[in-house]
């Protein structure tokens, strides 16, 4: 459960944002502005996964939030925002981009990720994911959401691909 067995077969990594890239918390000020924190090491890892491993990446989020759009723009990673059904979005994206679902690694944390995760050939999550997600994960990060999950994933992928 702690190792991703076939990183060479991974063509796409899908990330949920809240609870994976963030700690699943939001700060709201008196004017209704929302703030979230992201782990900078995850940003570097996303860049390295793209450049060194050649793996495409995308964020699929149920949230309608400009914070996610800005963060993904800065990281040069596509984002699907306001997604009601992540499984349908994943199938459509993979079909459009000619990526087989067995070649997808989905990193999620909550029950709205489960259906899409079950479609993916590889599944991972943060250590503080919901029990239903922990049950189906092939890889569980030692990190909590927002605490460097993607950075750890990068290390796992590079170590496994060098064997």
How would you characterize this protein structure?
The chain is of the alpha/beta class and 163 residues long. The protein is 37% helix and 15% strand. The protein has a single domain (7-161), classed as HAD superfamily/HAD-like (Rossmann fold), CATH 3.40.50. The chain has helices spanning 40-53, 66-75, 86-96, 114-119, 131-136, 149-161; strands at 12-15, 27-28, 34-35, 56-60, 79-80, 104-107, 122-125, 139-140. Strands 5-4-1-6-7-8 form a six-stranded parallel sheet, with helices on both faces. Strands 2-3 form a two-stranded antiparallel ribbon. Strand 7, helix 5 (131-136) and strand 8 (139-140) form a beta-alpha-beta unit. Helix 1 runs parallel beside helix 6 (149-161). It is globular and about 50 Å long. The mean pLDDT is 92.
Defining traits:
163 residues, alpha/beta, Rossmann fold, six-stranded parallel sheet, two-stranded antiparallel ribbon, 6 helices, globular
In brief, what are we looking at here?
This protein is of the alpha/beta class. Helices cover 37% and strands 15% of the residues. It has a single domain, classed as HAD superfamily/HAD-like (Rossmann fold, 3-Layer(aba) Sandwich), CATH 3.40.50.1000.
Spans of at least 5 consecutive residues whose pLDDT stays below 50 are: none
CATH fold annotation: Rossmann fold
Cα-atom Rg, whole angstroms? Answer: 15 Å
Separate helix tally: 6
Secondary structure tally: strands: 8
Q: What is the CATH class name?
A: Alpha Beta
What structural class results from the helix and strand content?
A: alpha/beta
- Spell out the CATH superfamily: HAD superfamily/HAD-like
Main sheet strand line-up: 5-4-1-6-7-8
CATH architecture: 3-Layer(aba) Sandwich
- Ends: how far apart? 18 Å
Order of helices and strands: EEEHEHEHEHEHEH
Sheet with the most strands?
A: 6 strands, parallel
How much helix, percentage-wise, in residues?
25-40%
Total tally of structural domains: 1
Q: In one word, what is the shape?
A: globular
> Averaging pLDDT over every residue, what do you get?
92
Strand composition percent = 15-25%
């Amino acid at each position: 459960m702690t190792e991703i067995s076939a990183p060479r077969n991974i063509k796409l990594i899908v990330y949920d944002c809240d609870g994976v890239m963030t700690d699943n918390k939001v700060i709201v000020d008196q004017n209704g502005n929302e703030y979230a924190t992201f782990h900078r090491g995850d940003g570097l890892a996303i860049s390295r996964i793209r450049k060194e491993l050649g793996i495409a990446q995308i964020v699929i989020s149920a949230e309608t939030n400009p914070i996610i759009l800005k963060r993904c723009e800065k990281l040069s990673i596509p984002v699907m925002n306001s997604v009601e059904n992540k499984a349908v979005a994943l199938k459509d994206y993979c079909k459009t981009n000619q990526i087989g679902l067995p070649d997808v690694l989905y990193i999620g944390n909550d029950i709205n990720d489960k259906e899409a995760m079950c479609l993916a050939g590889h599944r991972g999550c943060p250590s503080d994911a919901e029990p239903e997600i922990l049950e189906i994960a092939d890889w569980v990060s030692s990190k909590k959401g927002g605490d460097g999950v993607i950075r750890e994933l990068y290390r796992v992928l590079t170590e496994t691909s060098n064997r």
